[in-house]
Amino acid sequence: MNTTDEPLAPGLYLVATPIGNLEDITLRALRVLRSADRIACEDTRQTRKLLDRYQITTPTISSHEHNEAKRSRQLVEELKNGARIAVVSDAGTPGISDPGMVLAAAAIANGIPVYPVPGASAVLSALVASGLNTEQFSFVGFLPPKAGARRTALEELAAGLSRPPTLVLYEATHRIVETLTDIEAVWGPACRVVLARELTKLHEEFLRGTVREVRDQLAARESIRGEIVLLIDAHPLSAGSARGATLLERLAELEKAEGIAEKDALKRIARERGVSKSELWRELQRERARSK
Ligand code: SAM
């Protein structure tokens, strides 16, 4: 690792940049960006704004999700020849739901030193200010955008928990209300969540409450803008509880123990879970397909 008065050592530098407030950049990050031979950027125009603000003139090159594999081969060749390359994403820490991982892995595979230059990341900023458990947390990134796959992902997360961690996920504003509805269906309406919006920016906002309260509050807004981190005070679902049992288990319970026909049992479970019958029907198909 370099100290401030030494020239930058050859290698790959993963440099965190601000997630909103341009002051959130470290002295070391600025020095690395200034001294590197090149900066590999997710979007060179976006990074140019930051570089201009700090009068940094280092040449940039694009490295985004569509060209990262090809670009990695080229940059690894330069690194093998002793180059100092900085990697940045549009915002936050490269490699966290952003390009960076492929290049880091390629550099490591070629014996090239990889240096983290830590700084802003939405996941940690939201977590530490959430008031939820910070001792055990799990970063989920983005859930699948399609409704069925998203619900399945949440159910699998719930089923896989053995202790109560905080789940941290990134979500787009246009899907946030649907995602909160899915969280309520999986963990119940009393599940506590924290929504962190526009972190470090002018309109920074935290909504804390039950999943139903937060969803209703957002649904009542004319529009939901900005960037969002959602945190769930998740708990393992107790086996056999109406909420915790899989749909197939609950269905079998109602059919066998209480002698209720499938159609009526599904109506009842839909009511219990606060979801529509058609939604429950789709979920049943997915569970049946998974259990084959
Ligand atoms: N690499 C970034 C990091 O370290 O946080 C994350 C990049 S990911 C493509 C972008 C997502 O991060 C957004 O959709 C949002 O979920 C979250 N995010 C980024 N900046 C944010 C901010 N200022 N406030 C809230 N969420 C933010």
Characteristics:
alpha/beta, Cobalt-precorrin-4 Transmethylase, domain 1, Methyltransferase, Cobalt-precorrin-4 Transmethylase, Domain 2, five-stranded parallel β-sheet, five-stranded mixed β-sheet, 11 helices, 10 strands, 17% strand, binds S-adenosylmethionine
User: What would you call the quaternary organization?
Assistant: single chain
> What composes the largest sheet?
5 strands, parallel
Instruction: Spell out the CATH superfamily of the largest domain.
Output: Tetrapyrrole methylase, C-terminal domain
Strand content: 15-25%
Number of domains: 3
Number of strands: 10
Helix percent band: 40-55%
Radius of gyration, CA atoms, in whole angstroms = 23 Å
The coarse overall form would be: elongated
Strand order of the largest sheet: 3-2-4-1-5
At the first level of CATH, the class of the largest domain is Alpha Beta
CATH topology of the largest domain: Methyltransferase, Cobalt-precorrin-4 Transmethylase, Domain 2
Compute the average pLDDT: 91
